[in-house]
Amino acid sequence: MATVVEWVEGARPRTLPNAIAPVVAGSGAAASAGAFSPVAAVLALVVAMAMVIGVNFANDYSDGIRGTDDDRVGPMRLVGSRAASPDAVRRAAFVCLGVGALAGLALLAVSGAWWLLIIGAICIAGAWFYTGGSSPYGYRGLGEVAVFLFFGPVAVLGTEYTQSGRVSGLGIGTAVGVGLLSCAVLVANNLRDVPSDTVAGKRTLAVLLGERDTRVMYAALVVVPLGMSLVLSLRAPWALLGLLALAVLVPALRRVLGGARGPALIPVLQSTGIALLVWAVGTAIGLALVP
Fold this sequence. Notes:
Layout: H1 4-10, H2 17-31, H3 38-66, H4 86-111, H5 116-129, H6 143-164, H7 169-192, H8 194-200, H9 205-209, H10 211-232, H11 246-257, H12 266-288
Helix pairs in contact: 2-3, 2-6, 2-7, 2-12, 3-4, 3-5, 3-6, 4-5, 5-6, 6-7, 7-10, 7-12, 10-11, 11-12
């Protein structure tokens, strides 16, 4: 039976910036319109964190029963390591996704945006079928597309809309930046796992592109949001605070472009997540300070 520490590690806390950043960024976009709602922001944060932890457990379960996680570096795999039974991990995934759904319903009740219920249902399905089901899209090189959509436009603009009742140009630009950096987190993870994923038949985008092109893609994914900071600064000058993420991204870029492999890429995953959070917080502050 898995210990509490193993369950916490299995939840992959290093991926939580992917949950926090979109809500912070979307709240900043709402604040730029004078419509920031603390209650809606907290509910959106609960939704995002529950969904991310839920999808992590769902991936652990689905990859574990397929044998994909039998020989992996990186975070704790509960099923693959035999620390927890597949049924227990599946239940944990369902509980987390259920918490996210309930918090989502509360958010829709507060905001009155009930049409977003459809989007919420799609998000839950996307969380499960990323590696679950008979034909998981994460095994067909579509993971990055889903991450961009769910953690960028859906999460950021959904947060903004439930607070302000509209989507702004500043929100769209911010959603692009958050979505791309969220993709970079996934790419850092998949680059590390290229050898084991190749053997297991998991055709991630990193496996399809190969290590060299994946490293180039990672660089593009982290550089473009920095350019987005410059674009956003034309309307919100303090959005340049997002460039503070450079301090974290430079060492990560050096590792990726320097050819680091396997365990040497683990710090890149953590650094990219921190950079995502720094960019989102800096940008949100900049948007909130718009006259």
